[in-house]
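Q: Here's a chain of 218 amino acids. Please give me its 3D structure as tokens.
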Amino acid sequence: MDDTAASGGIAEHVYQALFRMVMESDIAPGSRMVIDKIASDLGVSSTPVREALARLETQGLVTKERLRGYFATEIMGSAEFADLWEFRRLLEPHAARQAAMGIDRTGKVRLQYEVDSIRQVRLQDDYASMTTFREHDHRLHDLIFEFAGNAHLRKAMDQAHVYNRMFRIRFAPIDGYHAIQEHADIARAIIKGDADAADAAMREHLELAYHRIEPYLQ
């Protein structure tokens, strides 16, 4: 491995380690993330730690304060969660409707593959399972925005850091199984080209997900 590849590998390792610690609250929400201490704990120099923290900042998982450094962001409370869900209710049913009207044959195959693939996974109450489900959730909803054909809506959703913020809340694996079935219902309507059904299925999914997750909030 050349020096550049080695450096890239270390940076990715540090990023993945910090991402997990923040998502799992091993680094307490609101706590300061001291670069030198993190570097010492992980056995690396400060450079990949700085790179990882900057990357996490773009994902809404850490904040940087002038003259004070980096801090792990707080986990959403009920009010912020309600605001996030209002944002989703405004954007995602419309995106599902537009996707049903504009999806092509290749898109249908991709959407069906995403739904079928996650059904093969046995979710458990561990980080690996929640990571698998988070990545599926992100892909499924992002595909819908892609097929909706509106880059601005897709960018707005991405910039809200919805998935990272949601999955810092540790809800039970059974919640994931319910969502997978709801995703299948949404995908079925989109693949059929039924815009009204896609809109309704997305609205129902968002309402059910809200009531599943809300009890786990602070």
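Q: Can you summarize the key feature?
A: The beta strands are 32-33, 62-65, 69-72.
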